[in-house]
Amino acid sequence: MRRDFAVIVVLATLGVMLSACLTAAGMHYLAHWQWLGALVFGVLIAATDPVSVIATFKEAKAQGRLLVLIEAESLLNDGTAAVAFGVVVAVASGQQLTSLEITTVLIKTIGGGILCGGAVAVGALLLAGRTNDHLVEITFTTVAAYGSFLLADHFGLSVVLAPITAGLLMGNFRSFGTISARGKEDVHAFWEYAAFVANSLVFLLIGMHEAHQNFAAIWLPAATAIAPVTLGRVVAIYPSCLSCLIFSRSSLRVTRKHQNVLFWGGLRGALALALALGLPLSSAERRLLRSALPSSPFRSSCKA
User: Fold this and answer.
1) How many domains does the chain have?
2) b vs e for 138-161, b when ≥16 Cβ sit within 10 Å of the residue's Cβ?
């Protein structure tokens, strides 16, 4: 991940923004949505969530750079999309923000979230290094995950980047302490199950919310969303566009085969659905936004 960090960051930032803007333009001109509603949807659907793709890779025992790119892009672009989503929803709710204020909010939210995650992770590692009890070590990782989330939420910072930072430090930073070999196996098994439950609950919740939906009234914008979302992913990945063109003549070049997998593996899933469920009740496009999501060809499936 360190070796390909520059590529991952470009995909998770520039790639997300390009995809979001193209999707928003498509929904504005094709579905005739207002710009703010279209932009909310564009940002909401831009982050990838390739749960089933990663599961397929693991079943095939596939390793190497491609798996790292898919996993790491999904890891970081969740934070990018969530922060951008908060800003766009604030603007759509009527808050007047200048360019300088938006930039300040982004820097504060992202940087503060990373600091919160780092602080909580260091504290958890100091304690984890004092025990070999795998149950206690699992507890410390749980405290680090939810502790960093709650700390960031308390200060109005990124509640996505804080747990991501805590997880990366807990798994790799050894200066203050480390989790035992037995503990690592149990921690991985516990969080794999926790991730499965969380993904399943999000899909169940969206199904319960839409159980009585009149799909005849929303099928057109739902079907219309497929084209701009697909084109947005094309813009984010292929070399004719900035994301991969930047590295086309360097050792970090992303091959065409890898680009194809990144394109088709860019599923949309839990994050988009969770953000849609959290839209303000006063949002004019709330029901349309939620209803357009299941029709996306990139929707992630939960593997039972």
Assistant:
1) 1
2) bbbbebbbebbbebbeeeebbbbb
